[in-house]
Model the fold of this input.
Amino acid sequence: MDEALELGAYLPQSLANASEQAYLDFLWSAFQTNYQSERYEFASLAFHLLYMSFVSFSIWQIRLARPDPFAMAMVGFRSDEEGSLMDCESPFKFYDRLKESQIFRFLKLIGCTNQQVGEFAKFVRRRNKIAHPTGTVFFNDRAAIDAEIADMMKEVGNIEAHMEPVILELYQRFLADRADEELWSFAVPGDEVTANLVHANYMSAADLAYCRAFDIESLRDEPGFEAKLALHQSLVALYPPDEIDDAA
Done:
Protein backbone atom coordinates (compact mmCIF):
# COMPACT_ATOMS: atom_id res chain seq x y z
CA MET A 1 0.00 0.00 0.00
CA ASP A 2 2.74 2.48 0.93
CA GLU A 3 4.47 2.12 -2.44
CA ALA A 4 1.16 2.62 -4.24
CA LEU A 5 0.52 5.85 -2.37
CA GLU A 6 3.82 7.19 -3.72
CA LEU A 7 2.06 7.57 -7.07
CA GLY A 8 0.35 10.63 -5.59
CA ALA A 9 3.63 12.53 -5.88
CA TYR A 10 3.50 12.01 -9.66
CA LEU A 11 -0.08 13.17 -10.10
CA PRO A 12 -1.11 16.87 -10.19
CA GLN A 13 -0.72 18.78 -6.93
CA SER A 14 -4.18 20.22 -7.46
CA LEU A 15 -6.62 20.64 -10.32
CA ALA A 16 -8.56 23.71 -11.31
CA ASN A 17 -11.25 21.46 -12.80
CA ALA A 18 -13.40 20.21 -9.93
CA SER A 19 -14.78 17.21 -11.84
CA GLU A 20 -11.27 16.01 -12.72
CA GLN A 21 -10.20 16.37 -9.09
CA ALA A 22 -13.27 14.43 -7.99
CA TYR A 23 -12.41 11.69 -10.49
CA LEU A 24 -8.89 11.25 -9.12
CA ASP A 25 -10.20 11.32 -5.56
CA PHE A 26 -12.70 8.60 -6.49
CA LEU A 27 -9.96 6.40 -7.98
CA TRP A 28 -7.83 6.75 -4.86
CA SER A 29 -10.80 5.87 -2.67
CA ALA A 30 -11.66 2.87 -4.85
CA PHE A 31 -8.08 1.63 -4.72
CA GLN A 32 -7.64 2.01 -0.97
CA THR A 33 -11.05 0.60 -0.05
CA ASN A 34 -10.64 -2.49 -2.22
CA TYR A 35 -7.04 -3.02 -1.17
CA GLN A 36 -7.89 -2.85 2.52
CA SER A 37 -10.86 -5.18 1.98
CA GLU A 38 -8.57 -7.63 0.16
CA ARG A 39 -10.48 -7.27 -3.10
CA TYR A 40 -7.20 -7.00 -4.91
CA GLU A 41 -8.57 -7.56 -8.42
CA PHE A 42 -10.67 -4.39 -8.18
CA ALA A 43 -7.88 -2.51 -6.41
CA SER A 44 -5.61 -3.27 -9.36
CA LEU A 45 -8.15 -1.85 -11.81
CA ALA A 46 -8.38 1.42 -9.86
CA PHE A 47 -4.59 1.67 -9.62
CA HIS A 48 -4.27 1.04 -13.35
CA LEU A 49 -6.57 3.99 -14.03
CA LEU A 50 -4.41 6.16 -11.78
CA TYR A 51 -1.33 4.98 -13.70
CA MET A 52 -2.97 5.79 -17.04
CA SER A 53 -3.97 9.20 -15.68
CA PHE A 54 -0.30 9.86 -14.91
CA VAL A 55 0.59 8.87 -18.47
CA SER A 56 -2.08 11.16 -19.93
CA PHE A 57 -0.83 14.11 -17.85
CA SER A 58 2.69 13.48 -19.16
CA ILE A 59 1.45 13.38 -22.77
CA TRP A 60 -0.42 16.64 -22.15
CA GLN A 61 2.80 18.27 -20.96
CA ILE A 62 4.68 16.99 -24.02
CA ARG A 63 2.02 18.44 -26.30
CA LEU A 64 2.24 21.82 -24.57
CA ALA A 65 6.04 21.94 -24.59
CA ARG A 66 6.66 20.49 -28.04
CA PRO A 67 3.60 21.03 -30.25
CA ASP A 68 5.41 20.65 -33.56
CA PRO A 69 7.08 17.29 -32.78
CA PHE A 70 3.79 16.18 -31.21
CA ALA A 71 1.95 16.97 -34.44
CA MET A 72 4.58 15.10 -36.46
CA ALA A 73 4.19 12.07 -34.18
CA MET A 74 0.56 11.82 -35.28
CA VAL A 75 1.55 10.89 -38.83
CA GLY A 76 -0.28 7.68 -39.60
CA PHE A 77 -3.42 8.62 -37.69
CA ARG A 78 -6.56 9.56 -39.58
CA SER A 79 -6.71 13.27 -40.36
CA ASP A 80 -9.71 13.80 -38.09
CA GLU A 81 -7.84 12.15 -35.23
CA GLU A 82 -4.85 14.44 -35.76
CA GLY A 83 -6.97 17.57 -35.44
CA SER A 84 -8.94 16.32 -32.48
CA LEU A 85 -5.81 15.37 -30.54
CA MET A 86 -4.34 18.84 -30.93
CA ASP A 87 -7.63 20.40 -29.86
CA CYS A 88 -8.19 18.27 -26.74
CA GLU A 89 -9.07 20.55 -23.83
CA SER A 90 -8.14 18.01 -21.17
CA PRO A 91 -5.67 15.12 -20.82
CA PHE A 92 -8.61 12.81 -20.15
CA LYS A 93 -9.98 13.53 -23.63
CA PHE A 94 -7.06 11.80 -25.33
CA TYR A 95 -8.76 8.46 -24.76
CA ASP A 96 -11.84 9.62 -26.65
CA ARG A 97 -9.65 9.64 -29.77
CA LEU A 98 -7.06 6.93 -29.16
CA LYS A 99 -6.73 3.41 -27.88
CA GLU A 100 -4.88 3.27 -24.60
CA SER A 101 -1.91 1.48 -26.13
CA GLN A 102 -1.51 4.19 -28.80
CA ILE A 103 -0.95 6.98 -26.30
CA PHE A 104 2.41 5.56 -25.30
CA ARG A 105 3.94 6.21 -28.73
CA PHE A 106 4.19 9.91 -27.83
CA LEU A 107 6.74 9.04 -25.13
CA LYS A 108 9.23 8.54 -27.95
CA LEU A 109 9.28 12.35 -28.15
CA ILE A 110 11.13 12.44 -24.83
CA GLY A 111 13.72 9.87 -25.85
CA CYS A 112 12.03 6.64 -24.80
CA THR A 113 12.95 3.64 -26.93
CA ASN A 114 10.53 1.15 -28.46
CA GLN A 115 11.54 -1.34 -25.78
CA GLN A 116 10.77 1.16 -23.02
CA VAL A 117 7.44 2.08 -24.59
CA GLY A 118 6.59 -1.61 -24.65
CA GLU A 119 7.39 -1.87 -20.94
CA PHE A 120 5.16 1.11 -20.18
CA ALA A 121 2.27 -0.32 -22.23
CA LYS A 122 2.39 -3.90 -20.96
CA PHE A 123 0.10 -3.02 -18.07
CA VAL A 124 -2.71 -2.24 -20.53
CA ARG A 125 -2.59 -5.81 -21.81
CA ARG A 126 -2.65 -7.17 -18.26
CA ARG A 127 -5.54 -4.91 -17.33
CA ASN A 128 -7.52 -6.03 -20.39
CA LYS A 129 -7.30 -9.63 -19.23
CA ILE A 130 -8.65 -8.69 -15.83
CA ALA A 131 -11.43 -6.52 -17.26
CA HIS A 132 -12.97 -9.44 -19.18
CA PRO A 133 -14.75 -12.47 -17.70
CA THR A 134 -12.10 -15.17 -17.69
CA GLY A 135 -13.13 -17.26 -14.73
CA THR A 136 -9.76 -16.53 -13.16
CA VAL A 137 -8.77 -14.14 -10.38
CA PHE A 138 -5.32 -12.80 -11.21
CA PHE A 139 -4.59 -11.11 -7.89
CA ASN A 140 -5.42 -13.54 -5.12
CA ASP A 141 -3.19 -12.12 -2.41
CA ARG A 142 -1.41 -9.01 -1.28
CA ALA A 143 1.99 -10.19 -2.48
CA ALA A 144 0.73 -10.49 -6.06
CA ILE A 145 -0.74 -7.00 -6.26
CA ASP A 146 2.20 -5.46 -4.41
CA ALA A 147 4.54 -6.96 -7.01
CA GLU A 148 2.41 -5.49 -9.80
CA ILE A 149 2.36 -2.08 -8.12
CA ALA A 150 6.14 -2.15 -7.65
CA ASP A 151 6.54 -2.94 -11.36
CA MET A 152 4.24 -0.07 -12.33
CA MET A 153 5.94 2.39 -10.01
CA LYS A 154 9.31 1.50 -11.55
CA GLU A 155 7.95 2.55 -14.95
CA VAL A 156 6.38 5.70 -13.48
CA GLY A 157 9.84 6.68 -12.26
CA ASN A 158 11.35 5.93 -15.67
CA ILE A 159 8.81 8.11 -17.46
CA GLU A 160 9.22 10.97 -14.96
CA ALA A 161 13.01 10.90 -15.37
CA HIS A 162 12.57 11.35 -19.14
CA MET A 163 10.12 14.19 -18.52
CA GLU A 164 12.62 16.51 -16.79
CA PRO A 165 13.60 18.46 -19.96
CA VAL A 166 9.92 18.91 -20.86
CA ILE A 167 9.04 20.22 -17.41
CA LEU A 168 11.93 22.68 -17.50
CA GLU A 169 10.88 23.86 -20.97
CA LEU A 170 7.39 24.56 -19.65
CA TYR A 171 8.74 26.32 -16.59
CA GLN A 172 11.16 28.53 -18.49
CA ARG A 173 8.42 29.43 -20.96
CA PHE A 174 6.12 30.28 -18.06
CA LEU A 175 8.75 32.64 -16.63
CA ALA A 176 9.62 34.18 -20.00
CA ASP A 177 5.97 34.96 -20.73
CA ARG A 178 5.68 36.81 -17.41
CA ALA A 179 8.67 39.13 -17.53
CA ASP A 180 6.21 42.02 -17.38
CA GLU A 181 4.12 41.92 -14.20
CA GLU A 182 1.45 44.01 -15.92
CA LEU A 183 0.68 41.01 -18.12
CA TRP A 184 0.08 38.61 -15.22
CA SER A 185 -3.43 37.25 -14.80
CA PHE A 186 -3.14 37.69 -11.03
CA ALA A 187 -1.53 40.40 -8.94
CA VAL A 188 -0.17 37.92 -6.39
CA PRO A 189 2.80 35.84 -7.66
CA GLY A 190 1.63 32.71 -5.86
CA ASP A 191 -1.77 32.88 -7.53
CA GLU A 192 -0.10 33.27 -10.90
CA VAL A 193 2.05 30.20 -10.24
CA THR A 194 -0.85 28.04 -9.07
CA ALA A 195 -3.24 28.96 -11.88
CA ASN A 196 -0.95 29.31 -14.89
CA LEU A 197 1.84 26.88 -14.06
CA VAL A 198 0.52 24.19 -11.73
CA HIS A 199 -3.08 23.95 -12.92
CA ALA A 200 -2.53 24.76 -16.60
CA ASN A 201 0.28 22.21 -16.93
CA TYR A 202 -1.05 19.55 -14.52
CA MET A 203 2.15 19.80 -12.48
CA SER A 204 2.89 17.13 -9.89
CA ALA A 205 5.14 17.30 -6.83
CA ALA A 206 7.78 15.47 -8.87
CA ASP A 207 7.46 18.03 -11.68
CA LEU A 208 7.69 20.94 -9.27
CA ALA A 209 10.88 19.49 -7.80
CA TYR A 210 12.49 20.04 -11.21
CA CYS A 211 11.15 23.61 -11.27
CA ARG A 212 12.44 24.36 -7.77
CA ALA A 213 15.90 23.14 -8.76
CA PHE A 214 16.02 25.48 -11.76
CA ASP A 215 18.90 27.97 -11.55
CA ILE A 216 16.92 31.20 -11.49
CA GLU A 217 20.17 33.19 -11.31
CA SER A 218 20.93 32.09 -14.86
CA LEU A 219 18.21 34.55 -15.95
CA ARG A 220 19.60 37.54 -14.06
CA ASP A 221 20.78 39.36 -17.18
CA GLU A 222 17.48 38.86 -18.99
CA PRO A 223 14.65 41.44 -19.09
CA GLY A 224 12.11 41.14 -16.29
CA PHE A 225 14.36 39.22 -13.94
CA GLU A 226 12.76 40.63 -10.79
CA ALA A 227 9.32 39.47 -11.91
CA LYS A 228 10.67 36.01 -12.73
CA LEU A 229 12.47 35.86 -9.39
CA ALA A 230 9.26 36.73 -7.53
CA LEU A 231 7.45 33.89 -9.30
CA HIS A 232 10.24 31.42 -8.59
CA GLN A 233 10.41 32.37 -4.94
CA SER A 234 6.64 31.99 -4.66
CA LEU A 235 6.83 28.53 -6.20
CA VAL A 236 9.51 27.47 -3.71
CA ALA A 237 7.45 28.82 -0.81
CA LEU A 238 4.12 27.34 -1.92
CA TYR A 239 5.47 23.94 -2.96
CA PRO A 240 8.34 23.09 -0.59
CA PRO A 241 10.55 19.98 -0.94
CA ASP A 242 9.18 16.62 0.10
CA GLU A 243 10.13 12.97 -0.24
CA ILE A 244 10.46 13.32 -4.01
CA ASP A 245 13.41 15.65 -3.54
CA ASP A 246 14.91 13.34 -0.94
CA ALA A 247 14.72 10.40 -3.32
CA ALA A 248 16.17 12.28 -6.29
Summary: The chain has two domains: 2-162, 168-247. The longest helix spans residues 142-176. Residues 17 and 71 are 26 Å apart (CA to CA). The mean pLDDT is 87.
